[in-house]
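Why does this matter for the project? Reviewers at the last site visit asked to see concrete outputs rather than summary tables. In response, this paragraph embeds two records directly. Each consists of the residue sequence and, immediately after it, the corresponding structure tokens. Nothing has been edited or filtered.
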Amino acid sequence: MKTLKSMWGHKALYLILLPGLAWYVIFCYLPMFNTSSGGILLAFKEFRNNMPFSEMQWVGLKWFERLMNKPDFWIALTNTFKISFLRLIFEFPMPVVIAILLNEVRRYKPKRIFQTILTFPNFLSWVLVLGVLRDLLQVSGLLNGLRVAMGADPVNYLNNSDWLSNMLMVLLTNVWKSAGWGSIIYLASISGIDPSLYEAATIDGAGRWKCILHVTWPGIRSTAVVLLVLSCGNILNAGFDQLFNLRAALNIEHLDILDTYIYRYAFGMGKMNFGFTVAAGLFKSVVNFALLLTANKAAGWLSGETVF
């Protein structure tokens, strides 16, 4: 009753929320339980292309058992966790750093120029970005052409089996493409900080570093916590577009993640085994949800701030 009263008191906000909520219900939740196509229930049935869903045979947990017994599944799962944790450690702080640095640029015009330069890569597709990268870094590319001209041997930057060089390629290209765009939400949080707090800190003798530490960071910490929790709930989504285009014969053992694994079994094995791939996708979603709840609870214990 108390919750309903609170909702009624904020009815205007809930009305604004309705279109977004309707979109999620119609396009995300209803297809999951669509009785004509199967949705997530395909994970428990034997898929037949020439048979309606209602007539397909129930197989229980057959596809999940097969998934757990496949060595390549565990390789893909391990790669997914490794890449996602590296993203959390090295990529997650970058938008915060960029936002703070941009906030310290006092002149309006240079600040806008830097922000435009940093956010522009987000609007480029991974196909385009990695196509340009191949022209630069492949064996017959521009960089290797310069190496050969200087008497050095060419290096295959994009198709090698070295784990470290592959991880550096993944992290550096993603930071270049997305960190500037990710800083926008932190800049919005910084703009909401009362300027009188900076003035008071300056009067007390605080320099720029002290102002960042004691005024800017506390002002954006709650935003960082929310985004960190949401990122933890997205750990098994390690970046399909980027890694699908980066994969090659020699690096697939390091860059094959759950999403590319599911894609390969759905469309690349000569047989459309949708029951198996839906089971893999359902496993991924359940684990992501469990990680989201765990991260939210941990954030509450450590900082007193949670998403829900």
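We now turn to the second protein, recorded in exactly the same manner.
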Amino acid sequence: MAQSRQQPASVSSRDPDFVTASIKARLRRRNKLTPAGRLEEADELTARIGKDVKQRNKVRLNHVNGKSDVKTLWTAVRQL
């Protein structure tokens, strides 16, 4: 079975900050697998997407010092 070549996923200004091109491509892939009945593959992708989003948010919040600047911390959390 030949695989179709997909266009690279482009991230727009309307996407949340945690969405990268690779996350968006994985989301699109998962959304195609689920209706096709390939639920095990879709579940694996879902777990990988969750890990990627968690890591991306962790990196974004690492620079904020929550002990001294609580207002900035909550502003960053709301942007997630």
